[in-house]
Write a structure and sequence with these properties.
Oligomer: single chain
Number of strands: 14
CATH topology of the largest domain: Jelly Rolls
CATH superfamily of the largest domain: Jelly Rolls
Radius of gyration: 23 Å
Low-confidence stretches: 279-285
Mean pLDDT: 83
Strand order of the largest sheet: 4-5-6-13-8-11
Strand content: 15-25%
CATH architecture of the largest domain: Sandwich
Helix content: 25-40%
CATH class of the largest domain: Mainly Beta
Shape: globular
Distance between the termini: 65 Å
Number of domains: 3
Order of helices and strands: EHHEEHHHEEHEEEEEEEEHHEH
Number of helices: 9
């Protein structure tokens, strides 16, 4: 069955203007355009619109959604299963938080006693999980996951903590208003901090003061794992979310160019000061 753009707008609660825009940018084209110039949509287009709305609900921007849906290997069923898994996690966490709220209200009203530990049920973050279930991946689906463990929202901006499975920490840079502490969970890493070059292994840590340029990378081919703490939190969470929108094809530095990448770092309180460590190594040999 074919639907006009007005009928699709009515059933999906997406405005006609938005549907026209999706068509103009190549995100969702109609099945065909009638002799009268009207756009008509059939089931494949409705399913594609559903995917767009799911990805929008998950916080992705249109550029990223278009890249995902445009892949030759994109499969609707696999995508729906992925959406369902994310929503189930969010739903479970929401239910737990609602229960905590209800218990706290009852406790404050004096109708039911609540232990001190119960006050914080729902705020724990399980192994391999993210504080908000986001699972930001740097460099696309096969890239490096970085999970927020403590958010700026938890600390009123005082600090935030990330678990990062990675091979490198990006290009050399400095944080204008943040101190950084890195604790190695697995693997060995080489750091260049200011004028110092050092190597750290499991259980070791390093403190990097603000305004000190630094760069680091894992030693060997296998990725390592670190805890990364920023104090204060600044805009680093937003930075990782923005970087996570790039799927690695092309890499973010190619997509933006060096000047674009420099501006991106500056927007989130950092100065880009040099290349990644592997470039430094190749230049020094």
């Amino acid at each position: 069955m074919a639907y006009t753009v007005k009928q699709v707008a009515a059933m999906s609660h997406v405005s006609v203007r938005t549907l026209h825009f999706y068509d103009e940018v190549g995100l969702l084209e109609p099945a065909y355009v009638g002799d009268n110039g009207y756009r008509f949509y059939e089931e494949p287009q409705l399913l594609m619109l559903q995917q767009i709305l799911f990805y929008r609900e998950l916080g992705l921007e249109l550029k990223a959604i278009r890249q995902i849906l445009g892949r030759a290997e994109f499969e609707k069923i696999a995508a729906l299963e992925s959406h369902r898994a994310v929503l189930e996690k969010n739903l479970a966490r929401t239910r737990t938080l609602i229960e905590t709220i209800d218990k706290t209200i009852a406790h404050l009203k004096g109708t039911k006693q609540m232990s001190d530990e119960e006050l914080f049920v729902g705020f724990t973050v399980a192994a391999g999980d993210d504080r908000f279930g986001e699972h930001t991946i740097l460099g696309g689906p096969n890239g490096e996951p970085i999970d927020c463990k403590v958010s700026a929202k938890d600390t009123d901006g005082a600090m935030c903590v990330f678990e990062f499975t990675c091979r490198a920490g990006g290009p050399k840079h400095l944080h204008r208003e943040q101190d950084e502490w890195i604790y190695v969970l697995d693997g060995e890493f080489e750091f260049v901090v200011g004028e110092k070059q050092l190597q750290l292994g499991r259980g070791e840590s390093i403190f990097i003061p603000r305004n000190v340029e630094h760069v680091w990378a894992v030693v060997g081919d296998a990725p390592g794992r670190i805890l990364n703490v920023y104090q204060p939190a600044g805009k680093i969470e937003e930075f990782f979310r923005e970087i996570g929108k790039y799927d690695g094809n092309p890499p973010v530095h190619e997509a933006l160019g060096i000047e674009g990448l420099r501006k991106l770092f500056a927007t989130y309180g950092m100065d880009l000061t040099g290349p990644p460590l592997r470039w430094v190594e190749s230049a020094s040999t």
